[in-house]
């Protein structure tokens, strides 16, 4: 793999959960892969008054904990040489001056400001950076999700961030798009002749996208209760995956060509407002249950969740795209916490053959499907019918599978590693442009308004199941089932 250009990365929220669990281990792995040159600087920034040694001790124990046996002392020494810490309170002017001193004389290097803090600090920090002339022409800013809580607040953040950074300097991150499989989906669609002619109405019967987590709200209850599954998962990850599935082939691999096509999909989403939202969405909230045989508490008993909270921890939606390619093909999306297992997948189910020549299985749902598995393993499986061994032409379901890790010799970057290298290289393809974000919020807001208007409480589901029964009905009424219910 190519060595990355020398960069300075200032990690705001450098003591937080995301930085410690994902971002710093991702940077450590890229160092081990020989991509990070010795002159690079990674500066954790947060309010805590820590010495460099204290910060390094925290980073080290987290890298050890989150790198499953990949940690070694020799590599740690070379990674640690790049890492520093600077106390920066977002609202404290003097702290930016200290950061400025650390970055002095390095104006020629790629400079990245990664906002791994609460979104209400993004604009404040960007304005602080601009006031202290820390934004160079080679600077980039990375914004974590969720960017705002609705269209209005998202616009306000983007507006203020936009006073410090130009749009091509802004990287709005969606870590699902960093997954190898998602990019392989693009490769599969646009690098092969096989699927594209079938990738449309008349050939595709329906599409399912599931992002299921078995964990609960963990330590993020305060944040989660203000946000809910619709804003935490659908507005960004699910809609982005839907765009990748549904977009037209871009004319070039240029980032804006790709983002233009995704934007067209967002604009073509049939609005879900009022009764349409009510009929085509299901909200749920988990009750006590068991995950993998272990009892778990319900959402309302989680620490920091108000006892009367109506925040949804599950949402399922039926979405339609009003375009020539997709008219009449339903897209079913669902996501939730404390579901039976951690499983993220996209399932494209194709139409049945027009005339059945051979004896076929009774189970009508197990026909041609393309299953794109994102979690826990990444891979692609094509379900076909094949002749079963022995006499007669009896068809049975069979699978053509591609396990990326196995096929490509285990060379794999996790989502954040991939996206961080793209940011350092200045490649915007996998990052959301501002108009995409606006379009996503503009589609999401009426759904929340409808939920508020009808004052419906989320439907209860037992932790360890696949969500409320109504989520099954949402798809069964059209004659389909979720793949896990086949
Ligand atoms: P977190 O654990 O609460 O960390 C927040 C960080 O911000 C801490 O380092 C905190 O350190 C710092 N901070 C708080 N107030 C500050 C201030 N006034 N000035 C400067 N720094 C301040 O949050 P997180 O879970 O890492 O999440 C960070 C961002 O990533 C959020 O936008 C979240 O939505 C997003 N995200 C997180 C995850 C995840 O798995 N955790 C996944 C996807 C997206 P001090 O208290 O020392 O200042």
From TrEMBL:
Which is a GO BP term held by this UniProt record? glucose metabolic process
Kindly tell me the pathway this chain contributes to: Carbohydrate degradation; pentose phosphate pathway; D-ribulose 5-phosphate from D-glucose 6-phosphate (oxidative stage): step 1/3
Q: What is its EC number?
A: 1.1.1.49
- Origin superkingdom: Bacteria
Residues that, per the record, bind substrate: 175, 179, 213, 232, 337, 342
Where do the catalytic residues lie?
237 (proton acceptor)
Q: Which UniProt keywords apply?
A: Carbohydrate metabolism, Glucose metabolism, NADP, Oxidoreductase
Give the matching SUPFAM superfamilies. Answer: Glyceraldehyde-3-phosphate dehydrogenase-like, C-terminal domain (SSF55347), NAD(P)-binding Rossmann-fold domains (SSF51735)
InterPro entries named in the record: G6P_DH (IPR001282), G6P_DH_AS (IPR019796), G6P_DH_C (IPR022675), G6P_DH_NAD-bd (IPR022674), NAD(P)-bd_dom_sf (IPR036291)
| EC category | oxidoreductase
Question: Where would I find the Glucose-6-phosphate dehydrogenase C-terminal domain in this sequence?
Answer: 186-483
Q: Name one Pfam family in it.
A: G6PD_C
Report domain Glucose-6-phosphate dehydrogenase NAD-binding positions: 10-184
Q: Provide GO CC annotations from the record.
A: cytosol
What GO molecular function annotation could you give as one example from this UniProt entry?
glucose-6-phosphate dehydrogenase activity
The catalysed reaction is: D-glucose 6-phosphate + NADP(+) = 6-phospho-D-glucono-1,5-lactone + NADPH + H(+)
Q: Which positions are annotated as binding NADP(+)? A: 47, 145
Whether ATP-binding counts among this entry's keywords is: no
- Cite the HAMAP family for this sequence: G6PD
The entry assigns this protein to a family as follows: Belongs to the glucose-6-phosphate dehydrogenase family.
Protein role: Catalyzes the oxidation of glucose 6-phosphate to 6-phosphogluconolactone.
Which PANTHER family does UniProt cross-reference here? Answer: GLUCOSE-6-PHOSPHATE 1-DEHYDROGENASE, GLUCOSE-6-PHOSPHATE 1-DEHYDROGENASE G6PD
Q: What is this protein called?
A: Glucose-6-phosphate 1-dehydrogenase
The record lists the organism as Steroidobacter denitrificans
Organism phylogeny: Bacteria, Pseudomonadati, Pseudomonadota, Gammaproteobacteria, Steroidobacterales
